[in-house]
Amino acid sequence: MISKFAGKFSLRSGLRKAFSAFTCRECSTRTAQMPAGQPTHYSHPQLLKNGEILPGMRRGEFRRRRSMLVNTISQQSNGRNGAAMVLIPSAPDQFLSEKIPRPYRQSSDLLYLSGCQEPGSALVIRAVHPEVHRAVLFVRGADDKKELWDGPRFYATEATADFFGVDLVLPADKLGDYLHAALGDNEKRMTNVWFDKSFGQAHDGSPRSTMDTVIANNISSIKLDSTRPVLHQLRVIKSLAEIELMRKTCQIGAAAVAETIAQENYLKHKDVVEESSIAARVEFECRRHGAQHLGYPPVVATGTRTNTIHYVANNNIGASGDLALMDAGCEYYGYNSDITRTWPLSGSFSGPQLVVYEAVLDVQQKLIKLLDTSRPTLSQLFAEMCLLLGTNLKEIGLLPKSVSGSELLSGAHSFCPHHVSHFLGMDIHDTPSISHSLPLQSGMVITIEPGVYIRSDRKDVPAEFRGIGIRIEDDVLITNSGCEVLSAGCPKDVAALEKLMQRSSISS
């Protein structure tokens, strides 16, 4: 007779052997058992394939970006010695209060060049000449006590270097020594240094603080240039992998805004709706569909607060007859969406609301159609928006019939005081150093966001229009053949919006 404990022993032995075999198989891949502070193909096989650092982005993508950066820097060195060093610190940690951290968001430049999402990291690129460069990533490394509180992190190992596709990974506490050796008084010292002096606020002991100190100690022997304009030139044109991530984040954002409009059942079973509940719903929907977090604090405005452009308090109460304006977007692995919709809380527009809404929608649709046939600059888009909006405002009686020329444009600007577009990508207002006078090119992503804001105390318009605020915003990819509205999944036509509001929910 077999003891009742024998079966358990055999089972445990079998599990032990199976686990041992599994571990050995996985160890054949250097990255298999490494600690990691972000998703890897090992920890998240449903998200990342082997060789990918971000979804759809392989190591080669980041190598190419670093090569493009080095080549661009070489072209801008004006005959100087081709040797150069690029310093990219991580974003600083942010705290809500003492010892209470905010969710960490990596510097867009570091994420763009390495894919590393960890705090306390840094990237140093040493270029001997345009064709040869060496990328060194600095990470915090092992710390049992801090990892107990903050979670796992990458270590300075060959496995980490292999995962990120860099030449070397070193502990972050060696950054100062490394830079002193590279910039100090020696035959091979680097004299051309590229560093974004405007980025972030340095904290003692942070990579940024270390870089500031070393640069200050060697400032007399180096030529310092800013990486900001160079990196923005590269980042403004999205690669195929970046375009796919932009599609994904815009799809998530559009679905979240649409479902928020549909699922809140506004005023069907109650007399008022809280803006905070709308804000909570859109964040839930973004996260439910896979976004890491919202791209920015959402604007959820009802009633007359729709006229406050960057209204983020979201503490008003909307009632029947009010419009709701929501400007919200999400971030998906470093890439952002930015969408605005305006809708009536009662489920249908009033007469004056409908007139203004259709005037704004007409402008937006014509601007998007313009992108199918031409490559204007952002400044030209703004001028065209003012012309189209001014014409529509004349037709609906918000501007005098007699105005024309510059008065028409300034009149439109008085109703829409913000720009109609900005670049979009890793940041919401992406690559801000890129001139608005640059013609749009294939691979750029921009917003199209006309609006009309009529304050309640504005006496130069008919009373029935006072207090109405409307904005409609979509995210648009410029393509070789025209443009693609990435946020098209969220309705904006009047009939589609009203149909959406009549449903208790929409499919996910």
Based on secondary structure, the structural category is alpha+beta
State the total count of DSSP E strands: 23
Cα distance, first to last residue?
Answer: 57 Å
Mean pLDDT: 89
State the share of residues found in helices, binned by percent: 25-40%
Unreliable stretches (pLDDT < 50, length at least 5) are 1-32, 504-508
Biggest sheet architecture = 6 strands, mixed
Shape by Cα distribution: globular
Task: Note the beta-strand portion.
Answer: 15-25%
General description of the model:
This protein has 508 residues and is an alpha+beta fold. It has helices at 4-27, 59-75, 108-114, 144-150, 158-164, 175-183, 207-217, 228-235, 240-263, 275-288, 351-371, 378-395, 405-415, 494-501, and strands spanning 52-54, 57-58, 84-89, 95-97, 100-101, 122-129, 132-139, 168-171, 192-195, 223-225, 272-274, 293-294, 299-302, 317-319, 323-328, 330-332, 335-336, 339-344, 445-448, 451-453, 469-471, 474-478, 483-485. The protein is built from 14 helices and 23 strands. The strands form eight sheets. The chain has a six-stranded mixed beta sheet with strand order 8-7-6-3-9-10, sandwiched between helices. Strands 12-16-17 form a three-stranded antiparallel beta sheet. The radius of gyration is 27 Å and the shape is globular.
